[in-house]
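Quick start: what a row looks like.
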Amino acid sequence: MPDSFEHTPSLTIRMPNGALTSLAGNIDAHHRVAIADLILVQRRVRETLERLVRDFRPDVVGLSIMTFQRHTALKIVHLLRSLSPGVRVVAGGYDPSLDTEPYEDPASGVDFIVRGEGELTFRELLRALESNAPVAAVAGVSYRNGHRFVHNPDRSVMRLPVERLALPNRGARVLGGYTFLGRAIDIVETSRGCTYDCSFCSIIEMRGRNFHPFPIERVMADIADARSRGAQTIFIVDDNITLDVRRFEELCRAITGAGLSTVDYIVQAMTSSIANHGETLAPLMKKAGFRYVFLGIENILEEDLGFLKAAAKNARRQQGVRTGNATVEAINILHRHGMFVVGGLIVGNPDDTRESIEANLAFARRYVDWPYIQHPTPYPRTPMTRDFRDQDLIVNHDYREYDGTTAVVRTKHLGADEIEFMRWRAERWMKLRHLPPVLAYSPRFVMRNGVRMLAHTFRGSSLKTFLGLESEREAFRRYKEIRRIEREYLDEPESGTGYQVPRTGCAVQGA
């Protein structure tokens, strides 16, 4: 899907969808497969799809969809139907896996749903289709039978150490331009799953609480393949790589030993693992080339961590005994070893007040290098959704705005718009503070694009805003309108807005 998060503007970061390359690498070799990451053509979606359908004449089109991308996905299905009426459409990813109902509607145009991990399911589905065999025997598939959908039994989660998957097929990509601060980026997966039970997490709902790592040899082959195709930066997308710290240390040594530490690595990590094992782990990470670490801080207040069910993964321990919050210690360790911290926080929980949100924003200002502050979002089937629904705190049911940085729930004390305004107002200046390190890292990119980067960070604001001649609320209103327009990837911007959409612009869905 072309839909992107506010925190990952396509000007500075355009990452590939790793699930698609893994699917492509694990279907039978006689199929002709094309991968189109529409994030690369956000303002050319329609013409790109028209060209690809004309050039490839596909029999099957699969869509990987998160909840906030649902609206765009269904529009794309309708476009595909108009271009190729007989094409078979398969929906997969978080949203169809956890909420099949919108895709069961006959008006959706979807023929099949692949639930959960897709590699084996999709391969078996294609085999059934090409041999005209019934799909009723394909575990993990839901399929249209007349005007209703039939849901086959779930497929068991793959045990990756023993159930070998082929490497991703990066050669199937038909669009190019994946970049991070002007450098070519790719993604690699070294494990799947998590054993914690954070209330906001879609992963647990989709695959249960488990952890399955790939063999280190397979991971190294994957990294080498990405590097051979030009990757200068690699984002390791594991749900929770720090569940097995010793394995992570082994991976760091393997990267260094293979001479692949010239690549810059980005990774997601738990604060507790870094705090409790960082003195040995962090030097190995630095030597292997890790540059940015996304820390799942979630919140600095214990009562909020309790609601998020994230206290355990943020605990500092000594000799197995919990001794406090691990966040500051984890950040200090990473900073001492020359790595930057992307701080993942969630504000706007049911009991949050203005003071509690400000406390988290103040923490981010002081400690993190790049803020990744989100609002709790009621994604399908998560415990958080049930909690917010039971307390009647969900105020927005437009899934297009379930992108993490649009507040769609209120607290018992604050409205959703006020919560989002507080984050928006503070976060812009936090991002500005990180510009000097980015300039040092990618001077040419920043010199070429610095003005556009600032324009994106402060979009909605004007000279009058900075001079104090208009309210920040007015700038926030314009920002919200900009975001609304951006979400329509198959439509032209509406006239009269005074704004033209730019051509570039652990695990909550997509975090």
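That is the whole record. The chain has two domains: 17-151, 178-452. The CA atoms of residues 216 and 247 lie 8 Å apart.
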